[in-house]
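Hi R.,

As promised on Friday, here is the backbone we talked about, encoded as structure tokens. Could you run it through your design pipeline when you get a chance and send me back a sequence?
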């Protein structure tokens, strides 16, 4: 059985979605994010980054990094369709956008939500937040442009990259209201959130959207 260390509206969402899509037997361990449970033991003994999520595999191995988790699940459950066929151009595109979101969009979000980490100037974080938001929006606008030319991030087939994007777009501080400006992403979010494996967990994570 998989064990997912989880908190609401965090990166744990996409991994939970992948487990549900794969019908993988799993349990959630709910962390008290607001009170910083992820920053203290015993959690940091399991995941020394103190970040959420963590996925413990059935053999007890500990996996961190959301993209590593969804790529691994797509290999273990190849028939689930989390990703297009191995070796295909579409799969390459799914890798491209998953890595783009994890290394760019996600970090812009962190700059907005944790600005104090990006300065030695104490309380003076307004500029850092503003830059984080601007970069986050630029990154979403870029993907909205891609989705103006093709149905999903990997091509014509929905994949876990689209679920990742739906999560990223819900992290915009204006949530759905901002998405009305990005109608291609809005369309993809609609497809993702109505998938049977995701419908049940969407509201739990994104009650505002
Ligand atoms: N690169 C990591 C980032 C994980 C991450 O930053 N998670 C956020 C929640 S969405 C977190 O734990 N933030 C708390 C913190 O950084 O203190 C991944 O993809 O798993």
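Update: got your reply. Pasting your designed sequence below so it's all in one thread:
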């Amino acid at each position: 059985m998989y064990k997912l260390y989880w908190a609401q509206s965090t990166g744990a969402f996409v991994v939970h979605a992948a487990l549900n899509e794969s019908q993988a037997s799993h349990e959630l361990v709910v962390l008290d994010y607001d009170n910083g449970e992820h920053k203290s033991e015993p959690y940091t003994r399991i995941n020394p980054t103190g970040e959420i999520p963590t996925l413990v595999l059935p053999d007890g191995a500990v996996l961190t990094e959301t993209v590593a988790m969804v790529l691994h699940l797509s290999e273990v459950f190849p028939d689930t369709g989390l990703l297009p066929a191995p070796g295909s151009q579409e799969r390459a595109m799914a890798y491209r956008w998953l890595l783009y979101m994890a290394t760019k969009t996600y970090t812009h979000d962190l700059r907005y939500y944790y600005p104090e980490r990006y300065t030695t100037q104490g309380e003076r974080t307004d500029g850092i937040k503003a830059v984080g938001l601007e970069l986050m929006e630029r990154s979403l606008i870029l993907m909205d442009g891609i989705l103006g030319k093709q149905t999903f991030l990997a091509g014509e087939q929905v994949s876990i990259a689209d679920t990742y994007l739906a999560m990223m777009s819900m992290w915009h501080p204006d949530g759905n209201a901002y998405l009305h400006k990005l109608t291609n992403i809005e369309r993809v979010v609609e497809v993702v959130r109505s998938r049977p494996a995701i419908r049940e967990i969407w509201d739990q994570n994104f009650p505002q959207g």
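One thing I noticed while checking it: The domain at 89-195 is CATH 1.20.1050.10 (Glutathione S-transferase Yfyf (Class Pi); Chain A, domain 2).

Thanks again,
M.
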